């Protein structure tokens, strides 16, 4: 059947323009789109970059990051330590929430408690926190169970909510994303940030307006921001070219060169700190989605090695990513503190016979069958990458049944439950950037340490990977202040997980945005999108 691509693309553009509604010709209205929607207005619902960066325009943390990703004062004007296990935060006076309620220490204490309990997906940031107490309306102190030199950095990710608003609207406990729970904070918001939530229509559009009473001096000139999720990449590109949107967050690699040739468009690109990787269920004694019963093939290192060394990341870079990826052997990117360059070398690919022999030695001479979970609207070309992996593993006798779905369903399925129980997956794709700290310990604590409800560590270790020696090293790394000693332990811990084939790192994906020529914006290396730096010329 012959398909008229131009007619289809124009129809998609017209539909997008209709969904955006009629907006007055105001140079201060900024319209942008992404492949997927913001999953919630609750800042603790899911620890996912797109969600947290979107909500940081409405809510604010105690300390925030500047254009160069360095820490600077946010809702706290000063912070530090009075003892190795005691931190203080002096709060910014005169700040008000969007409804006019004054910001005080009570809001900080409430928010940190809400973020570390209930259905919150942010519990991993509170592994060292013992108590949070109010010293005065403008000062909070935090006691940690062990020295935690990264505490202030971690809190740069935690948005502060209004205690009064949450109590009034019965939203004092974070809804559990793994159970698809909702409360008033799911579709409504009350922050102190530069933008106010005006209208939220899940799956359709979200409208923000300028906060005229923001405590900081605005660097933006926006009066209104209209965000629209547009799943189809061709429709997003067509809408940008037509001027129906001003910016698209996430440009398909196949469209990058074409957009660069458009005189009305500019492409902004650079390497991202995120690593896209594959993980296996190494926790259950029997996989949920396999023809193998009574045992779990992924518990065998030889099986994990056969998978790892049968996936051609260079071919994925060349054919799927159009050269816009940076293959890696590690779970952290260059530029992150603790990246071990000498170990960032993938072992050579196995020949088909060699991989099959590894599987046979592990007890699977005929291969086996497994399910695989993948998002189709989260990472660059995510579903296409997974399809390539399926084909590569088929060569060694592995039948992979791929389930690709939208991020909201996907994350709910694969991530650990609120009680740290395992997600419902056998083999999956995920991406991770240690943007909370820009330190490798975040990766150890979140992805590699044994999941524990008591310690709150391993919160995003969907594999259930467990290595007691690595656990011990990670705990020591967390509190070690001597750089030489810390680096030596990081090297040892990195060797452990790479030799275990704990995960299959694929690549560091490139950050590629595109906007109209009259838009000025800033692209950080962590792929966050602070609207406070956007100017419409």
Please report the number of helical segments. Answer: 16
The low-pLDDT segments are 1-27
Q: What does the radius of gyration come to?
A: 23 Å
Structural class: alpha+beta
Strand content: 15-25%
Round the mean pLDDT to the nearest integer and report it.
Answer: 92
Helix content: 25-40%
Shape: globular
What separation lies between the terminal Cα atoms? Answer: 44 Å
* Major pleated sheet: 9 strands, mixed
The tally of beta strands, per DSSP, is 19
Protein described:
Mean pLDDT is 92; it is low at 1-27. It contains 16 helices and 19 strands. α1 (5-20) crosses α7, α14 packs antiparallel against α15 and α15 (468-479) packs antiparallel against α16 (483-499). The two termini are 44 Å apart. 51% of the residues are buried. Strands 1, 8, 9, 10, 11, 12, 13, 16 and 17 form a nine-stranded mixed β-sheet that branches. Strands 4-5-7-6 form a four-stranded antiparallel β-sheet, with helices on one face. α12 links the parallel β14 (368-375) and β15. The protein is α+β, with helices and mostly antiparallel strands. The protein has helices spanning 5-20, 49-55, 105-115, 151-155, 163-168, 184-187, 233-242, 253-260, 301-308, 313-320, 352-361, 382-394, 407-414, 440-448, 468-479, 483-499, and strands at residues 29-34, 63-65, 71-73, 76-83, 86-91, 129-136, 139-144, 195-201, 205-210, 224-229, 247-249, 265-280, 325-327, 368-375, 398-405, 427-432, 504-516, 519-520, 535-536.
């Amino acid at each position: 059947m012959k398909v008229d691509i131009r007619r289809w693309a124009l129809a998609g553009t017209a539909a997008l323009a209709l969904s955006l509604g009629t907006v007055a010709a105001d140079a201060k209205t900024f319209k942008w789109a992404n492949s997927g929607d913001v999953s919630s207005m609750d800042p603790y619902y899911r620890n996912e970059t797109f969600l947290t960066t979107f909500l940081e325009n409405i809510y604010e943390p105690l300390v925030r990051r500047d254009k160069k990703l360095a820490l600077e004062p946010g809702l706290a004007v000063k912070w530090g330590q009075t003892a190795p296990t005691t931190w203080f935060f002096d709060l910014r006076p005169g700040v008000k929430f969007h409804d006019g309620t004054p910001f005080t220490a009570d809001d900080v204490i409430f928010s940190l408690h809400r973020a570390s309990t209930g259905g919150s997906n942010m519990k991993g940031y509170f592994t060292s926190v013992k108590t949070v107490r109010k010293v005065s309306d403008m000062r909070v102190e935090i006691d940690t169970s062990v020295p935690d030199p990264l505490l202030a950095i971690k809190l740069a990710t935690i948005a502060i909510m209004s205690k009064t608003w949450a109590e009034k609207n019965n939203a004092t406990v974070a809804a559990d994303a793994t159970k698809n729970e909702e409360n008033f904070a799911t579709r409504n918001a009350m922050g102190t940030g530069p933008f106010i939530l005006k209208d939220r229509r899940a799956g359709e559009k979200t409208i923000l307006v300028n906060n005229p009473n923001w405590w900081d001096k605005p660097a933006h000139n926006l009066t209104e921001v209209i965000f629209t999720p547009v799943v189809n990449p061709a429709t997003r590109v067509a809408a940008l070219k037509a001027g129906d949107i001003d910016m698209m967050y996430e440009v398909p690699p196949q469209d990058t060169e074409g957009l660069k040739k458009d005189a009305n468009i500019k492409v902004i690109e650079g390497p991202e700190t995120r690593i896209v990787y594959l993980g296996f269920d190494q926790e259950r004694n029997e996989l949920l989605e396999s023809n193998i019963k009574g045992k779990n093939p992924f518990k065998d290192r030889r099986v994990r090695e056969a998978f790892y060394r049968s996936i051609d990341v260079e071919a994925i870079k060349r054919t799927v990513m159009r050269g816009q990826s940076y293959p890696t052997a590690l779970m952290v990117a260059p530029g992150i503190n603790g990246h071990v360059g000498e170990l960032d070398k993938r072992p050579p690919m196995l020949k088909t016979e060699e991989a099959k022999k590894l599987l046979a030695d592990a007890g699977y001479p005929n291969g086996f069958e497994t399910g695989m979970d993948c998002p189709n609207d989260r990472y660059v070309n995510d579903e296409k990458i997974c399809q390539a992996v399926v084909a590569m593993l088929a060569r060694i006798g592995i039948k992979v049944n791929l389930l690709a779905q939208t991020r909201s369903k996907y994350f709910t399925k694969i991530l650990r439950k609120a009680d740290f129980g395992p997600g419902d997956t056998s083999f999956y794709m995920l991406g991770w950037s240690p943007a909370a700290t820009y330190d490798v310990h975040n990766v150890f604590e979140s992805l590699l340490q044994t999941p524990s409800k008591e310690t709150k560590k391993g919160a995003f270790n969907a594999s259930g990977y467990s290595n007691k020696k690595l656990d011990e090293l990670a705990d020591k790394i967390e509190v070690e202040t001597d750089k030489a000693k810390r680096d030596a332990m990081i090297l040892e811990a990195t060797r452990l997980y790479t030799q275990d084939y704990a995960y299959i790192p694929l690549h560091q994906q490139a950050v590629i945005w595109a906007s109209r020529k009259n838009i000025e914006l800033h692209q950080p290396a962590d792929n966050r999108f602070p609207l406070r730096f956007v100017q419409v010329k």
